[in-house]
Amino acid sequence: MARHSTRPTNPDLRDQILADFAALKVPLDAETFDAALARADREGLSHLQFLHLVIAEQANLRRERSIAHRIREARFREPKTLASFDWDFNRSIHRAQIEELAAAEFIRRHDNIVLVGQSGVGKSFLIQAIGQCACVLGLRVRYTTSADLLKDLTASLADQTLPQRVRYYARFDLVIIDEFGFDKIERAEAPQAASLLYKIIDARSQQRSTALVTNIDFDAWGEYLGDPPLAMAFLDRIVDGAIILKIKGKSYRAHRAQQPDRKATK
Fold first, then answer.
1. Which residues pair with 244 in a beta bridge?
2. Rounded to an integer, what distance in angstroms lies between the CA atom of residue 258 and that of residue 93?
3. CB of 213 within 8 A of CB of 179?
4. Within a 13 Å sphere around the CA of 245, how many CA atoms are in the beta-carbon half?
5. In 10-113, where does DSSP find H-type helix?
6. 202 φ, ψ to 5°?
7. Which of 62, 53, 52 is nearest to 24 (CA)?
8. What residue spans of the chain are helical by DSSP H?
9. What pTM value is reported for the model?
């Protein structure tokens, strides 16, 4: 077996390699590089093993920074993960189906997903956890509520930036619209609500995935949006071919509210 030389590295070559990494914007410091050289010499690493040793740590750090950036960009309301979900409380939720969605293949296929169910059954928790998994897998996600989305789009009408905002929401791999139908305050504040929401859905249709989380059944969308014909077009764009999850069962929120206040019992 070939033996590795224990001769010290040419200092000029060492400095040039560090300069090359800096030119490539890889933050490899001299101490880390020298430690890798020493380990390669001590353990008799091959050229490929040494190269992997040098770049793996930097690559992992960059991946972690990219994931953190995508999660910040998504603007999730809460940092939810499937690992922290209480699957035992509501057994009507199919865990295998949710975990399959977390693999993000539906996003790569540009499929939409609609979660329907009463308040408190875990819809928002699950969709945010699925969205966070997508961020980890390298996909760009944007979370918003129906009310916040309409507020943003209505403001863009006033300053004539609506086309830019539509393009902004169109660029994400997955847009999550939570609390659709939660109340009717959106229509009171935005008479063009149906039209504005339709612009976002239409811009993303068949090109990107949209997740809609709602507590109203499809036949009530026309009344909620206040424009039945446009509601039908909206329904067609978002629901046709979509993955529909109707979540039933007990309310986590009501269950937590019934728990005794631990602070009060101290």
1. 114
2. 22
3. yes
4. 24
5. 11-23, 30-43, 47-74, 95-102, 105-108
6. -65, -40
7. 62
8. 11-23, 30-43, 47-74, 95-102, 105-108, 123-136, 146-158, 162-170, 185-189, 193-204, 221-225, 228-239, 252-257
9. 0.80
Q: Are 184 and 190 in contact (CB under 8 A)?
A: no
What average pLDDT does range 80-102 have in this prediction?
90
DSSP code string of 23-53: HTT----HHHHHHHHHHHHHHT--HHHHHHH
Tokens of residue 226, six digits: 């206040």
Closest of 79, 64, 82 to residue 130, by C-alpha: 82
What length does the chain have?
266
Pair of tokens at residue 120: 């408190």
pLDDT tens for residues 94-131? 999 999 999 999 999 999 999 999 888 899 999 999 99
Longest distance between any two alpha carbons in the chain, whole Å: 80
Residues 15-69: pLDDT tens digits?
Answer: 888 888 888 888 888 888 888 889 888 989 888 888 888 888 888 888 999 999 9
pLDDT for res 254: 61
Locate 32 and state its tokens. Answer: 């880390």
**Residue 253: what pLDDT?**
63
**Cα 179-172-116 angle, rounded to 5 deg:** 25
Task: Say which residue the tokens 């063009």 belong to.
Answer: 192
Q: Which residues contact 160 (CB under 8 A, 6 or more apart)?
A: none
Per-residue pLDDT of 188-242, as tens digits, reads: 566 777 888 889 999 998 899 999 999 888 888 877 777 778 878 888 888 888 9
Tokens of residue 108, six digits: 């790569």
Q: Measured between alpha carbons, how far is 122 from 183 in angstroms, rounded to an integer? A: 18
